[in-house]
Each structure stands twice: as C-alpha cells, then as structure tokens.
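In response to a reviewer's request, we include the raw inputs and outputs for one of the modeled complexes. The two entities were modeled together in a single run.
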Amino acid sequence: MNPSQSSIRKQNPMQHLVHGAIYVFIIAICIFTMFPFVWMFLSSLKPLSEIFGQGILPTNPSLDNFKRLFLETPALAALIRSFIIALTFTVFSVFFCALGGYGFAKFHFPGKSAMFAVMLGTMTIPFAVTLVPLFVMMRNVFHWIDTPWPLIVPGLANAFGIFFMRQYMVSVSDEMLDAARIDGASELQIFLRLVLPTTTPALASLGIIFFMGSWNNFLFPTIILRDPSNATLPVLIASLQGSAGRTPYDLIMAASVVSTIPMLIVFVLLQRYFYAGITAGSVKG
Amino acid sequence: MLSFQHGLNSSESETPLRNLEKPQPVAMSNDSTRLGLRQVSLGHRLWRGRWGLLFVAPFFLLFAVFSIYPILFSIWLSFHEWNGVPGRELAVGFENFRFALRDGLFWESMTNAALIFVLHLPLMLFLSLVLAVLLNQHFLKLQGLWRALIFLPHLTSMVAAGFTFRLILEKDSGFANAALGVLGISPIPWLDDVWWARISVALLLFWAWTGYQMVIFLSALQTIPPELNEAAMMDGANRIQIFWHITIPLLKPVIIFCFTVSVIGTFALYTETTILTGGGPIHATSTPTMEIFANAFLNLKYGYAAALSYIYFLIVVAATLIQLRFTNRGDS
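The model returned the following structure tokens for the whole complex.
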C-alpha cells in the first residue's frame, strides 16, 4: 500500500501536465462540435453579402433574416405543422409501443415468438426497401399525398419501439399485476393506471427519440409533401435554395436556427431521458 | 361499475389458470396432442391468450399493413416494370436485376458509401472510445457539460447541419478555407473535388455521430467494475495498456454494435449527401438510397428501384453477417 501511494504522489507534477493536456484535448473537441452551431447562429444575424464575407462576427447583428423568413416564406406554418406532426406521432406511437411491449412482455399467446421474430427481422430492412411501395400505397390507395397522415400513421408500427418497451415491461413486477387482478382491476385498467405510470421514464426516453426522429425527418416528407405550402420545416429549408442563382443562405441559416432551437430546449430539459433512450438500444447488441 | 364487474370476472378466471400452467407448458401441449385435442386446445390457448393478443393487435395490424405488406409488395415490384399508373404493371422476370448488374451509377453509389464509411468510421470509433474513457475519469470536472457539448450535434436536423457545413466549406468564401489561409494553406476544393467531397461528407458524419457513440461507450464503461482497473494497476499495467487489454475487449459487444449501426447508416445516407453535395461532383458522393430515390421518383421506374433496393439490402446484410462472423472468430 505504502510504496504505491508514494509513487502516485511523486507523479503529481507529471499528472498535472497529463490532466491539463486532457482538458485541452476535450475542449478542442468541444470547439469542433460547437463551431457549426455558432456559425449557423452568427450567419443568421448577418445580411447575405456579409455571410460570404471574411468577418466572423456580424458588423450589424439584426433579426432581419428571421423577419423576412416568417413574412416572405411559409415558415411559421411549417414550424407549427412540424410540431403538430411530431407531437401527434410521438404520443400515438409511444402508446402503441407501450401497449404492444406490455403484451409481448407479460402475456402468453399462440404465435407470440413467431410474431416477435418477424418483427425483429424487419428491423434490419432499410427504409429504401419500403420507400417505393409505401409511396404507392399513400398515393394510390389512401390518397394521402400532401397530407400529414403518411408522416404519422405508417411510423406507428415501430418494431424498435416495441422491442424497447418490451425490455422495460419485463421488469414490471408480476406480483403487483396479480395483486391488482385480485383487487378486481380489469386488464385495461391495470395497463392504464399501473403499468403506464410505473414505466414513465421509458416512455419519456422513447418519446424523445420518436420526437427527434419526426422533427428532423426529411426523406419521406420530401416525397409526400409536394406543395411548398404543406412543407414541414426541414422540407421548407431544403426548398429555400431554389434552382437558380445564389443560395439564400441568410434565410436558410435563420430557418436552421429555428429548427435547431426546439431540439436544444427539449435536450436541456430532458437530458437524462435522452441518454437513456440512446443507450438502451445498444444494451442487447 | 360495469367495467369493474367485468374486471372481477376476468381476474377470477385468469389468475388461477396462469399460475397453474406457467411451470409446465411443455407437458400440457404434449398431453393435448397425444389425446388428439389439438384443435380444441388451440382455441383454448387463443382464448387464454386473448389479453396478450389484444394488447399486441393494434401494433400488429399497423405493422402488417405498413411494414410486412410493403416489404412483400417490393419483392413483387422488383419483377415488374411500372411507371406508377395503376394497371400498367408489366411482368419482366429478372430483367430489372439483369439491368442492375450493369448499372454503373448504382455500383458507383455502393462504392461511394463504402469509401465514405472507411473515411470516417475508424477515426470516429477510436476517438469516441478515447473520449468516453477520458470522460469516465474521476478527476475530470464538468463531465456532464463536456458530454452534452459533444453529443449535441446528434440531435440537429441534418438539413440544417448540411447547409451549415456547405456554407463553412464553400471554396471561395467559406470559413474553413479562410482559416486555413491564415495558416498559409492554399484553398481546398472541399465540395468541388471527387475525393474532398467524400471527405466533407465523412466530416459531417464524424461531427454528427461521434457524440452518439461516445455516449453509448460511456454508459457501457460505467458497467465495468472499477476493481478490475485497480487490480491491473496493482499488477503494474499503465493506463494505455489497460485501455487496449481490458477496456477494449470488455467493450467489444458495444463496439460491434456501433460498427454495425454505422455500416447500415452509411449505406442508407440520403439527407446528408443530398444537402451537402447533392451527390456530386460527378456522382462521387451519390449513395444507394439516392440512386433508388432518383430511379423511382425522377425516372418513374418503380420496379427497377425496388430491384435496386433489394440488391442493396442483400449486400448490406451479407456485409454485416461477414463482419459479425469475422469479429466472433477473433474471440475463440
């Protein structure tokens, strides 16, 4: 014990140097990760001519770009639409995933393992495979082009979400459920009043992942929302660049800030659930 | 009142049954098949499992319509030529697949994805591991802050990030070249050169995913008992030896997970490349998903796009399986 302790003490000046170097390294990485945010924010305060100039800070910071964004483009409608779609999708998909996850975790029924295996199998299939058939269904069968439904309904059947919720539901105590049954609660009551409240952290984690996915979704919305007046925020940002001439980075950067800030707020408020949701998927891997 | 009554009934009939049969399900089913009661017992089992089935039903109904059906429909489509007009489907056998084998643009997009993967993943995996180990050190202050700052890019819209990177990397007026100019380095054609464009895409992915991997590694590290490292220290191992010989082997399953997610993610790239480079210059950064998108929605060749999507899917699955076999063999 003694020799090792004294050797650590002897290393102290060396250790200070190493610790200092580690701080410098981590701060350098943070500057790298933060710089695009800073640049996005600074550019959104500059007029177009200055965005292409060499200065870092805006000479005359103004919210002019934001004013023009909301007055000249349907950005406000897109912002509200993105929010409603993301929220609706999140609430319903979390509920369905909780329902299904509970069914898989706590009940025995014929075909259960086959259903679960099929579900896990489809998780590896890339979106590109279902892209064309889904679009054809939305257009020819449901007539849902230029409506928000394709961005809400198909995603409700989320294999990852079922898998995620099942992991949590397994740990819900059987004794507690049986006690509720003996007390005369119906299965639906048990689910709504007992299971959902006890799994709130998991619901929050999954909800955040779903919200983020829907908020930032781009590929499917570009196919579905053809009319610019129906665009979600990412689709609107992409459509701002137009086909000819200089890219209007002033408006694009302002719109990017508008699309980034809500996620930042959600992150700051619910950081813990963010990390829990992100890491839960890797546990089984 | 009514639902309460119903609940009482169901719980009375359900609880004793569940408790009785749970320990011996195998014996039960054997008995019933021997007695030729299979059909009766299936109905019975369905009835007993009605609550589970009801809970799973909403999900599975949606899943059948919006996942299983499109997957099967896509297989059917891949053997047809179709421009999307109902009733104009034309069966063409393997023609789409035969054509795909000679489709230079498609194979180029597969190669691009592989190159972009090689350009960012090794460095990203290594750096995120190192960062996770560093953020796990007790002496480090403000751990939560560093973790948050490195993780933040992951939750940004890739449309917003893509445009920001494009602005920063612009050849003549972007900040990147201006900063390099101060150091005396001549301007780099970030988005206008075949290789630099791939590096730029790799850079964007590196920026967006390092924090994600770091958070996963960090949570895995926190499950390693500290006694293990202390014991190794006692035996005279230094920190770098511990990193290579203890930390990395213990994190192997999580590393494989991150690797696999990255393979699948890189081949599925769409938003990042569409916004940052538009797939250019001269198709150098076009990806399989972009090719499928273009064939379906610009050329209106739905059947061909479906065929491409299956070829791409099978290759990614094969690559993943080979990689898993390869990494597992190293174990034994």
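As requested, we also summarize the result in words. Chain B touches chain A through 111 residues (CB under 8 Å). Chain B has 15 helices and two strands.
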